[in-house]
Amino acid sequence: MERLTIQQILDDSNLEVKKNDIEYCLMDCLGKDKVFLHTRKKYLLTIEEQYKFNRYIDKLKKSIPLAYVLGSQPFYKYQFIVSPQVLIPRSETEILVEEVIKTGERVFAEKQSVKILDLGAGSGCIGLSIAAEKPEWFVCLSDFKKEITNVIHQNKINLKVKNCTITVVDWLTAFSQDSFDIIVTNPPYIDKSSNKIEKAVKKFEPSHALYADECGLSYIKRIIISSKKSLKNNGYLFIENGYDQSQEIKNFLVKNDFKDIEVLLDYNNICRFTKCRHIDG
C-alpha cells in the first residue's frame, strides 16, 4: 500500500470524492483539524492512517453519506454519533432546538421547572442539545427500537448529560396523562410515492425515519391526537414537517382543539415547522 502526503491526497483529482469530504476524512484519520491539513501538507500518513483513509474513500465512492462513513455528524453546538439505524441530523433542525429553548425559558420562568419529550428522537440530537444547554430542565427521549436508543445513550454519555431519560416506546403509547410541558418531534413525513428524495438518502438512510402513509402525514396525525393526553394544560407541541404539509397540519390541529398555531420557516424560508399549544376545555 502506497503511503501519501496530505498534499498528494488533496491534489489527487482521481479520487472522485468532494474535496470537503476528503478533508473531513483526513481530519478524522489524523485526529487533527483543518489548520493542520493546510499548514502541514508534507505530512506523510502512517500505514494505519493511510489504510483507514482508503477505506473511507472506498465507502464515499459508493455514495455512502459522509456521516455514516465517519460515524458522526455535527449538530447545533455538539458532535453526535450516528449509525444507519438513525437519520443523519440536518442543520435546519437546529431551528427547532432554538424555538423549543425559547418557549421552554418562558415555561421555566413561570413554573421553575420544565419537562420536555423528544419523540422519535433518532440520534437524540434535538433532545440532548436542549438538555446540554439547559441542565436545570428535564428531557425524556424516546424511540421505538433498542438499536436506536443505544445510539442516544452513547450520545448522552459523550455529551455528559445528566438531566434526561431514554425510553423504548412506540410513539406516545406508554406516557401517562399530563406528562410534558413540551413535546418536540421530527417524525417520518415523506410520502412513500415521492420522487423528490435524494438517491443517497433513499438508499442509505433508514426508511422507518423517512416515510409515512397518508401523503406523509400518518405519523404526524397520530402524534397530534395522542399528544392531547400527554401534554399538560397549555403545553406546546413542535413538529418538523414537509414543505407542502403546513396547511393540512394546521387544519388537523384546529380540528383537534390546538390553539396558537404558528408555521416556522427554515433557513431557506420554507415552511418546515409547526408550533402549537393545547388548552384543555
Summarize this entry quickly:
The chain is an alpha/beta fold and 281 residues long. The chain contains 12 helices and 11 strands. 42% of the residues lie in helices and 21% in strands.
Order of secondary-structure elements: HHHHHEEHEHEHEEEHEHHEHEE
Q: What distance lies between the first and last C-alpha atoms, to the nearest angstrom?
A: 71 Å
Enumerate how many helices there are, as a single number: 12
Spatial sequence of strands, sheet with the most strands:
5-4-3-6-9-11-10
Shape designation: elongated
Low-confidence stretches: none
Query: What is Rg?
Result: 21 Å
Strand count, sense and closure of the main sheet? 7 strands, mixed
- Mean of residue pLDDT? 95
- Helix proportion: 40-55%
Please tally the β strands and state the result: 11
Per DSSP, what share of the residues sits in E-state strands of 2 or more residues? 15-25%
- Structural class assignment: alpha/beta
Give an overview in words.
- The protein has about 280 residues and is an alpha/beta fold.
- It is built from 12 helices and 11 strands.
- α8 links the parallel β4 (about 140-145) and β5 (about 165-170).
- The longest helix has 18 residues, at about 95-110.
- The radius of gyration is 21 Å and the shape is elongated.
- The N and C termini lie far apart (about 70 Å).
- The mean pLDDT is about 95.
List the helices and strands and how they pair.
Elements: H1 6-11, H2 19-30, H3 34-39, H4 47-61, H5 66-70, E1 72-75, E2 78-81, H6 94-111, E3 115-119, H7 125-133, E4 138-143, H8 146-159, E5 164-168, E6 180-185, E7 190-191, H9 199-204, E8 211-212, H10 213-216, H11 218-230, E9 231-240, H12 246-255, E10 258-265, E11 271-278
Helix pairs in contact: 2-4, 6-7
